[in-house]
Predict the 3D structure of the following.
Amino acid sequence: MSTTIGVAEAKSRLSEFIDRVLAGETVVIARNGEPVVEMRPVKRVTPEEAVARIRAIGERIRKRNEGKGPLLKPGQTYRDLIHEGHKY
């Protein structure tokens, strides 16, 4: 279920709307009749889930770069890559 409220009502009854969101309701805050914010609970992530997500991102990057060879040439630094093509 979704409820749309105005900014003034949200300010005056914020605690009540937070409780309703935590109970499963979606609350949309509108400014001048136009929806601008949607309130919903924050999904808690355990440290283990965060590490798994980071590893998955790393794996996707490795797969995308497979067969492209190393990023740095022998003797080259990341600073060299940053400044590559710069005219001083």
